[in-house]
């Protein structure tokens, strides 16, 4: 594979002639570049008028590689041939270089140019590109490629520093101006042609003068190029290879993409999301651009008007910025009725709203970059979980959340700078265990949690005191909506076509069950490891039921099955004795018709656990109940249910994260091997 490098446009705020004088000081040796062992001129020519000067040099570079590799190659240095074409009339220097050593195995090509800045003739631009093609190298092709690229990028940075060093040296000697080339008179042509660039008699000595532009603002480069000062000021510090990836991807888009080219900040996010792997970033960005075009996302901020219900009950909004200048978004998730919002406005409206928040976030980052004079490409999200409970585990809501996470990860990568979680309750590890596998590892590392009760507490490390919201112990009035329960009267009617399709999708998540008098419905769940978590979510469609969770000391019939597999119907032996054959681990819960129940249980032992629903009513004779059930025209109760088992290791990791951050913010782990508790925890909640 051919590795390529393309530099941004680097600008020296000095005239071309002075930069050329500094450049010539690099030869024949340059102590500032230790790998450069020396050079000798092998060819030199000048045009008749002296305007064009061509020099070819043989340059020796020390090989910085492991001793074994140098021994196998049989060399301690490599030879490059460099050809310089200096045009004083056009004020350009073009440099071509290639390797002479191992030319049949490795091909290194480099092109550099010094030119006059297109909008300020007192400044000089420098560009550099290179390619590396390792065809074969004794089986060490991959190692050689890494060594060569690392050494090359280090020398790229060093090269600019060397030019600036010699410029400062010239100025310290009183040489700050060199006259431009002019055609020589015929009689003096021969004499003039012998005067070299390094001849002090050709330099006019003047007192020091400023070569800076009239203002700090950069003069622009042509629209298809990036200059290094712009990158540093607006995009942040990038390594030479990162700069090269940005320029190459940007150039590829200009050549192939039809329509508006994304902003540099946007392109850079996709490169960072793929660790600056150019092909992977290109693929991800192209898919996102197609998605934006298909859904007209570029127009979203102009066209999207959130429903009034969302503006009232969606508990999220922008609130100043964090201590680093990032825009701050506050989400009071614990106060938000996610189920009510989805039933009132639908999942698509919620997704549109989330997309508009991300679009607004990018816009605010650009504004803060201008306001604070430094690159700001991401925002901070403060998530308040006070009030989070089992109703937030409503499965269609969790699925919608996972879908939104997927969309944001795919199309808004590297926009989240930091996510601060505060006031996390005991139920939070269950939710985190459900969603964390779907969050990119780079993003997950930005999640910080603080479960202490002393506020503002650790928030002062991330927010200025004067912007900490009042509900977290600060003095700043926060205008983010407080959320609350969405009235059922605002729910969409099932007759609505779009909502009917959504309801159908939601119901496909659940299993139907009928409960008869004297014939409860039971589901057996096999747990292989203690401290696993059983979660459940069910809706009562008809009748009233009593729900309970039991631990069976012996596996009920029917026979063996795969771990986690479902066995249902009436499984508990009527002759089983409470306390001897099975024991309840959840207190019986009476569930009324129309209610939605969400809950979880942290198991204490491995074995068989039974989820049980039975008809609620006064105790009666078992035989009579069964006979009544057999002659009934239909079931007494109907329900839809869903359950899931969360792995012990994952849940313990989430619990450990929660319990280790009571005094300060700490990173939220996905898993850990340490156990946090030997006791079981359980909870159930009735939602609407």
UniProtKB/TrEMBL annotation:
CRAL-TRIO domain sequence ranges: 306-480
Q: Where is the GOLD domain?
A: 507-645
What CDD domains does UniProt report for this protein, alphabetically? SEC14
- Which residues does the annotated region (Disordered) include? 196-215, 669-688
Domain spans labelled PRELI/MSF1: 3-175
Q: Which organism is it from?
A: Myotis lucifugus (Little brown bat)
Q: Specify the protein name.
A: SEC14 like lipid binding 5
Gene Ontology CC: cytoplasm
Which gene holds the coding sequence for this protein? Answer: SEC14L5
Q: Which SMART domains match?
A: CRAL_TRIO_N (SM01100), SEC14 (SM00516)
Phylogenetic classification of the source organism: Eukaryota, Metazoa, Chordata, Craniata, Vertebrata
Q: What Pfam families does this protein's entry cite?
A: CRAL_TRIO, CRAL_TRIO_N, PRELI
């Amino acid at each position: 594979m051919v590795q390529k490098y393309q530099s941004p446009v680097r600008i020296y705020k000095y005239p071309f002639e002075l930069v050329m004088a500094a450049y010539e000081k690099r030869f024949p040796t340059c102590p500032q570049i230790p790998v450069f062992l020396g050079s000798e001129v092998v060819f030199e020519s000048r045009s008749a008028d002296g305007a064009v000067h061509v020099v070819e040099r043989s340059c020796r570079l020390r090989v910085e590689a492991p001793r074994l590799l140098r021994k196998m190659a049989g060399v301690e240095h490599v030879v490059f041939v460099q050809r310089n074409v200096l045009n004083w009339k056009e004020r350009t220097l073009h440099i071509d270089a290639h390797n002479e050593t191992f030319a049949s195995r490795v091909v290194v090509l480099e092109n550099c140019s010094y030119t006059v800045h297109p909008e300020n003739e007192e400044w000089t631009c420098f560009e550099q590109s290179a390619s590396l093609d390792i065809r074969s190298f004794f089986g060490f092709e991959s190692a050689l490629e890494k060594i060569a690229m690392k050494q090359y990028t280090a020398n790229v940075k060093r090269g600019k520093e060397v030019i600036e060093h010699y410029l400062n040296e010239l100025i310290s000697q009183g040489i700050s101006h060199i006259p431009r080339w002019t055609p020589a008179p015929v009689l003096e042509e021969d004499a003039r042609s012998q005067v070299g660039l390094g001849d002090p008699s050709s330099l006019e000595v003047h007192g020091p003068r400023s070569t800076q532009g009239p203002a700090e603002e950069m003069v622009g480069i042509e629209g298809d190029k990036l200059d290094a000062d712009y990158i540093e000021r607006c995009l942040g510090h990038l390594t030479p290879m990162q700069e090269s990836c940005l320029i190459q991807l940007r150039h590829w888009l200009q050549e192939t993409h039809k329509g508006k080219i994304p902003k540099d900040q946007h392109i850079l996010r996709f490169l960072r999301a793929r660790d600056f792997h150019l092909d992977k970033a290109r693929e991800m960005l192209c898919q996102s651009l197609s998605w934006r075009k298909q859904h007209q996302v570029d127009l979203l901020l102009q066209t999207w008007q959130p429903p009034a219900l969302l503006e009232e009950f969606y508990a999220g909004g922008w609130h100043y910025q964090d201590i680093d200048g990032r825009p701050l978004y506050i989400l009071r998730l614990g106060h938000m009725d996610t189920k009510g919002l989805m039933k009132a406005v639908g999942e698509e409206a919620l997704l549109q709203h989330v997309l508009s928040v991300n679009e607004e976030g990018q816009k605010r980052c650009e504004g803060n970059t201008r306001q604070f004079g430094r690159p700001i490409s991401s925002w901070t999200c403060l998530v308040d979980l006070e009030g989070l409970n089992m109703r937030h585990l409503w499965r269609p809501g969790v699925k919608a959340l996972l879908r939104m996470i997927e969309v944001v990860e795919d199309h808004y990568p590297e926009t989240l700078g930091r996510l601060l979680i505060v006031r996390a309750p005991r139920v939070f590890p269950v939710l985190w265990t459900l969603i964390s596998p779907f969050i990119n590892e780079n993003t997950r590392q930005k999640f910080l949690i603080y479960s202490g009760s002393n506020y503002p507490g650790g928030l002062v490390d991330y927010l200025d005191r004067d912007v900490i919201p009042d509900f977290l112990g600060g003095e700043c009035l926060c205008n983010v909506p407080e959320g609350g329960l969405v009235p059922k009267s605002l729910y969409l009617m099932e007759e609505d076509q779009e909502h009917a399709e959504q309801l159908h999708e939601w119901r496909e998540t659940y299993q139907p069950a009928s409960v008869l008098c004297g014939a409860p419905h039971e589901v057996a769940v096999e747990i292989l490891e203690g401290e696993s978590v059983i979660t459940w979510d069910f809706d009562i469609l008809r009748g009233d039921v009593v729900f309970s969770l039991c631990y069976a000391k012996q596996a009920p019939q029917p026979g063996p099955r795969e771990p986690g597999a479902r066995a249902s119907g009436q499984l508990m032996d009527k002759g089983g004795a409470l306390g001897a054959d099975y024991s309840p681990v959840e207190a019986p819960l009476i569930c009324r018709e129309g209610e939605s129940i969400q809950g979880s249980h942290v198991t204490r032992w491995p074995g068989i656990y039974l989820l049980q629903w039975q008809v609620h009513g006064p105790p009666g004779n078992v035989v009579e109940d069964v006979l009544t059930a057999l002659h009934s025209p239909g079931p007494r109760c109907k329900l839809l249910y869903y359950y899931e088992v969360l792995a012990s290791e994952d849940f313990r990791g989430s619990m450990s994260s929660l319990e280790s951050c009571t005094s300060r913010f700490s990173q939220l782990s996905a898993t850990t091997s340490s156990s946090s508790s030997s006791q079981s925890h359980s909870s159930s909640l009735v939602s609407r």
